[in-house]
Amino acid sequence: MKFPGRRRHKHYFPVEAKDPLSNQFQQHTKLQNNYIVGIDQIVVDIEAKVDNNFLAQFGLKRAMSQVIDDETTHALYEHLKNNKMVDYEFAGGTIGNTMHNYSVLADDRSVLLGVMSENIKIGSYAYRFLSNTSSRVDLEYLQPVDGPIGRCFTLIDGSGERTFAISPGLMNRLRPESISEQLITESSALVISAYLMRTEACDTMTQATLKAVEYANAANVPVVLTLGTKFLIEQDPTWWQEFVKNHVDILAMNEEEGLAITGFEDPLLATEKALDWVDLVICTAGEKGMFLGGYIDDKWKRDTTHMLMPGAIPDFNRYEYSRGMRFQDCEKPVKIYSHTAPYMGGPDSIKNTNGAGDAALAAVLHDLSANVYHHIHVPNSSKHKLNALTYSSLSQISKYANRVSYEVLVQHSPRLTKGLPEREDSLQQAYWDQ
After folding, report:
1. Which residues sit in the known binding site?
2. Annotated binding site for ATP
3. Domain 32-40+93-148+171-433 is of which CATH architecture?
4. What is the pLDDT of residues 223-276, one digit of tens each?
5. For the chain, how long is the longest CA-to-CA vector?
6. pTM score, two decimals?
C-alpha cells in the first residue's frame, strides 16, 4: 500500500522530500509520528498436535477456549515436552500479535500495555515473548509483576480443529493506575479484545481496560474491539451489544462471532447489523474472504468500477470506492460495503489459521494510522476535504488486509516475520489498481 510516512522504498509517498510547489510545511518542521495503543493479556502460544484422547485426559473441551489451573498447566506442558509433541512456541495474544504486525507493516511505533514478569530468565516464557516481538513495539509501559505471564496451549487434532487451554498466570493483574491518560488521549487508536473482560474476581485487567476505554471515549480516540471467540460472546450477547454500541468505534470479528453478537449467520448481514452500533466493521469469513462495512456521507460516495455483487444486500459493493467516515461526521450517512475473496484464492497449504484475523486487523489499523499521519503533515491536502476515518477506500483496505492475512496463513508463526515485498510478480496490477 502506498501509505505516507518514513519509508526506505522509493514507491512510497515521499513526505520528507516534497516538491517546492507542494511543500505545505516548513523544512525545519520536525515530523510528528503518531502511534496506536493496544491492551493485552501477555501470553506465549504453545502449539502441539494431539488426539481426542489427549484432550479427554486433561479434561479439555474440544474446539473451545478454556482456562486451566496451574497444576493442569504443569502436567500438560511436561507431557508435551517429554513426548516431544511441542511443534512451536511463539509470543502470542491477539492484541500482542496485532501490535507486532502493525509495527512490521508500518515500520513505526505501537505501544503495548499489559504485565511482564519482573525477573526474566533466558528461555523463560517472558523471555520468549520479548525476543519474538518487534523492536518497534514500545514495551516501556508494561507493568512489572512478581510471577509468570500467561501461556496459551493451541492443541490441534487430526481434523485441524483447534482447542485452546489458557493458563493465566498473572496476565490479568494490569491495574487501572498503570493506564496513562496522556498515552491514550494522544494515540491514533486504542485496540482491545473481548478476552480482557473474561477475568476472575481477584483480577484487575477488566477495570484497567474500562479505564483506558473511558479515556479514549472522552478524547474521541477510536476504540477498536476484536471479539476473539464466539463462546465468550454467546454467554451474554445483550451485554456485548450494549458495550459495543456505547464504547466501540471499530469492530473486528469472524462469521461465528458475528452470529453470536448479531444473530445473523450471513457475514454480510452481520456486518450490516453491527453498523447500527459502530462506524467500521471487519468480518473475516474463512474461505469466503473478508467483508468490510462502514459509512460515507452521501455527497462523498464513489461508485465502484467492479461488477456489482449479489448477496443478502443486492449490489452491496456499489460504493466500495468510498473512504470510511464516522457516522457522527456524516450529514446524510450511507452504509457502504466491500468484499474481497482470499488473496490468490488462498494458499495451497494452510500452515496455521491462528493469527490470520490479527494480521487483517493490523492492515486496517495501518490504513487508519496513515490517515492520521497524513492529516498531521499535509492538512491542506484534498484528501482531507472530508473528515474520513480511513486513508484508502474500503475496496483497497479489504485487498490489503487479505494480502496480509495470506502471509500469516502460509507460515507457522501467528505473527508476521517480515514486511510485504516491495514488488511481487504474482500480485496482478488489477488486484490493487482498481
Report:
1. 93-97, 198, 284-289, 357, 402
2. 284-289, 357, 402
3. 3-Layer(aba) Sandwich (3.40)
4. 999 998 888 999 999 999 999 999 999 999 999 999 999 999 999 999 999 999
5. 71
6. 0.86
